[in-house]
Specification:
The complex is a heterodimer of chains A (266) and B (392). Chain A is mainly α and 266 residues long. Chain A is built from 14 helices and no strands. In chain B, a hairpin with a 2-residue loop joins strand 12 and strand 13. Chain B is elongated, with a radius of gyration of 25 Å. The two termini of chain B are 35 Å apart. In chain B, 41% of the residues are buried. The N terminus of chain B is likely disordered. At the A-B interface, helix 8 and helix 9 of A face strand 6 and helix 3 of B.
Chain lengths: 266, 392
């Protein structure tokens, strides 16, 4: 079978490699268009849509809100997952299965259904249309994505390292600070990045929770596209892609994102 | 060996003389219905190199972890330096530990690994530098302080683990099979190095191993363990020549076993029916049991206690069994003989320098031994026999 037609599989592979980033390339191309509708390839080149995106205060504001919510969500969800994973692995390994079931459960629910549920939950606290309300919902959505890299990092840590620190006089907290956290740095950064990107990207659940004073970038793009699909959207999307791309590169340099590719059994 | 008096010791103020002593009294450990250790008593004198020796699953690592404080005993008490350790976590015990996989901190340099415990104790920087230097020199790594752990060889890592524990000057150092992952050559070097460092510092070392040769080579005293109990606690020569029972005799050193049955017991002597007829052995050769007529028993002989005589030679007061030489193997300074005596297979070791007078493979011979060199044992119970891969 392998030898039957190696060319076919080669071409299929190339096609796949082209088609995956193709929509992004089209959006980038369209953002430089000088027409007032999204067009690819662009007829003439212009930077006017970038100017519009940056000088219309609505867009930088939505962007700042999204970044803020993503950052707060990522930090909180990473801390919560770290504490949960560390505690269960060290003190209650029998609870791990139940904990994982709870943590992964957001993956099983349709986001629209979760949005409705979130409205009910967030309204309980009177947080509809506020940033804390959106953060609360994002914490639940990002929980499973942040858990995995932390869980793997902690599990690949030799438990004797903590014992060795204890014997040398380190309290449990001191061992956590000096040994466990530095050695799980890569998993922690991956969790921050994952949670941050997913929160930054979230539309469905977030749509239920925005208010007149607050909206995130993707939700605002969504509502904007319903009125007028000008290339300003392409410009904003291009900026978002660029920022995400830079974040991944920087984190890879700092930490080495091995957890993206490392299999669970590592 | 000082007798264990835990109550008295717990009340006494920790004296300098007691620093490094360990007193285990009635310690048991069970997980649910599974008993791992049952009623251990052990008193280790300060400054001893003591080895916990036994097959895997005998409870030696459990005992080490109890002393370290990673787990708590189900019953009994453990005192270090004469102080009761009940309820104290590892960080409050006067111990150091070298782990089986060493557990060096890979994100620290060699120096930082050694300095870590001192930093936790807020030792002033100048003192800290000096101590780290001293102990790195002690283990022969003075020139590698700034290396990363990943840049070290296996033997160097062992030395860092040792320096890191010893720099804190613990009363006792616990070592959990730290040499098991090394190749033989390096292992032998480190065995000698460990013993020298222990002698120099006078720290009590508690070393866990399943390798009886390693235990014999390094230890002042050996604790032979099996099935969650201490079988014997004594010096290596005493364990070899006066084993407490058949398990110890088989586990430490090589042993020839001749099965027989007790025919009669008289004052000072035991008559045994075995291969070659009825033999009289001194009753003082019985180890850990009192022979009774009709009971099965095992005559144990160390290989160097067997003399090989020509078939027509005079046994002159020794017991002599008819046999044949199956193999004759030259091993440097010694000759190793595999002999057959009826159904029994025996091993004898003689000096190579006496080789000219000894028979070749295939020739008939007389297998002779002094009755005073024979030891008499009760056959092993099934679980103990299983640890030698035998069916009883």
């Amino acid at each position: 079978m392998m030898s039957a037609n190696p060319k076919l599989s080669t071409w299929a592979g190339i096609l796949l490699l082209i088609s995956l980033p193709a929509p992004i390339l089209i959006i980038i191309g369209a953002s430089f268009s000088d027409t007032s509708y999204i067009q690819f390839p662009p007829e003439g080149l212009s930077l006017r849509w970038y100017r519009d995106a940056l000088f219309d205060p609505r867009w930088p504001r939505a962007f700042a809100i999204s970044v803020g919510i993503a950052a707060v969500t990522a930090v909180i969800v990473t801390i919560v997952n770290f504490m949960a994973a560390y505690y269960t692995q060290r003190h209650a390994p029998k609870l791990a299965t139940w904990l994982e079931l709870a943590i992964f459960s957001p993956l099983f629910f349709p986001h629209a259904a979760m949005g409705v549920a979130m409205v009910a939950l967030v309204a309980q606290f009177g947080l509809i249309g506020t940033a804390p309300g959106i953060v609360l919902a994002h914490l639940i959505v990002t929980l499973p994505f942040s858990y995995r890299p932390i869980h793997i990092a902690l599990r690949s840590l030799d438990p004797d390292l903590v014992r060795a620190a204890n014997v040398m006089g380190a309290s449990e907290w001191r061992a956590l600070k000096d040994i466990v956290i530095p050695m799980c740095r890569s998993g922690i950064l991956t969790s921050l990045l994952f949670a941050g990107i997913i929160s930054f990207d979230e539309v469905t659940v977030t749509m239920f929770l925005i208010g007149p004073n607050i909206s995130t970038l993707p939700v605002q793009i969504f509502s904007f596209v319903q009125d007028s699909a000008t290339p300003v959207l392409a410009a904003i999307s291009t900026i978002s892609v660029l920022i995400t791309f830079l974040a991944v590169i920087i984190l890879d340099r700092v930490a080495g994102l091995t957890f993206f590719v490392r299999h669970d059994g590592a | 060996m000082s007798p264990a008096q835990p109550e008295a010791l717990a009340q006494a103020a920790p004296s300098r003389a007691a620093r490094g002593s360990i007193d285990v009294a009635g310690v048991a450990k069970a997980y649910g219905a599974t008993t791992v250790l049952s009623g251990l008593d052990l008193a280790v004198e300060a400054g001893t190199f003591v080895t916990l020796l036994g097959p895997s699953g005998c409870g030696k690592t459990t005992l080490l972890r109890l002393i370290a404080g990673f787990i708590q005993p189900s019953a009994g008490s453990i005192a270090i330096d004469g102080r009761d350790m009940a309820g104290l976590p590892p960080q409050r015990r006067p111990i150091g530990m070298v782990f089986q996989n060493l557990a060096l901190f890979p994100h620290f340099s060699v120096e930082e690994n050694v300095a870590y415990g001192l930093r936790l104790r807020n030792v002033p920087e100048a003192d800290l530098r000096r101590k780290v230097g001293t102990f790195l020199d002690l283990v022969g790594l003075g020139h590698l302080g700034s290396r990363r752990i990943s840049q070290l060889s296996g033997g160097q890592k062992q030395r860092v683990a040792l320096a890191r524990s010893l720099v804190l000057e613990p009363s006792i150092l616990l070592l959990d099979e730290p040499l098991s992952a090394l190749d033989l050559q390096l292992r032998k070097q480190l065995q000698v190095a460990l013993k020298e460092i222990q002698r120099e510092l006078g720290t009590t070392f508690v070393f866990v191993t399943h390798d009886q040769e390693e235990a014999t080579l390094m230890s002042d005293r050996i604790v032979v363990m099996s099935a969650g109990a201490i079988q014997q606690y004594d010096t290596p020569p005493a364990i070899y020549s006066q084993p407490a029972n058949l398990f110890v005799a088989k586990f430490v050193g090589e042993l020839n076993e001749i099965t027989g049955r007790v025919a009669a017991v008289t004052t000072g002597s035991v008559e045994i029916d075995g291969p070659g007829g009825r033999h009289g052995l001194p009753a003082s050769g019985a180890r850990g049991f009192s022979p009774t007529a009709g009971a099965n028993c095992v005559i144990g002989l160390r290989p160097e206690r067997i003399t090989i005589l020509p078939p027509d030679a005079d046994a002159s007061g020794r017991i002599a069994l008819p046999g044949t030489v199956v193999e004759r193997i030259a091993l440097g300074p010694v000759l190793r003989f595999v002999l057959r005596c009826g159904e029994q297979r025996l091993v004898a070791v003689r000096l190579a320098s006496d080789g000219a007078a000894l028979p070749e493979a295939g020739s008939p011979c007389r297998i002779a031994f002094d009755p005073a060199d024979a030891q008499l044992f009760e056959p092993l119970a099934a679980p103990a026999a299983a640890s030698f891969g035998e069916k009883p």
